[in-house]
User: Fold this.
Amino acid sequence: MKHNVMLTVTSLLSILLFSIHLTGDIVRGIESGTATNLGAVPIMVVWLYGTLVLAERRSGHVIMLLGSLLAAAVPVLHMRGVGVGGAFARSSGAFLFIWTLFALGVTGTFSVLLLARGLRKPRSGSPIAHRPEHEEAVARQG
Assistant:
């Protein structure tokens, strides 16, 4: 599978899982469910725009990297302190909530790995590799 296709798929999965997870946070009372949670909407819109519209550009990769780091951090944040075991794990809907944590961590981390690979070395034929400033930098390394 092509690098950009894998990156797009994992980023879209992360966005979907992030929205499902935030919904679970609100339903369980972990988040307030007030207008302050609407801040997640522009974050997900920018992340989606970077994934679908700017996927071939360095700016899109940077946006996806930030979103992927956020996705990878969600399980770490939830499992600190009290965590999600014990009575929480036995509550209704806990299986989906905890599974979403793991899936979000996996897709986020995998996206970070793909992005690190892509940002480190531009592929030939990509718009990044054809910019004059990039060609000059490559010529100087030479």
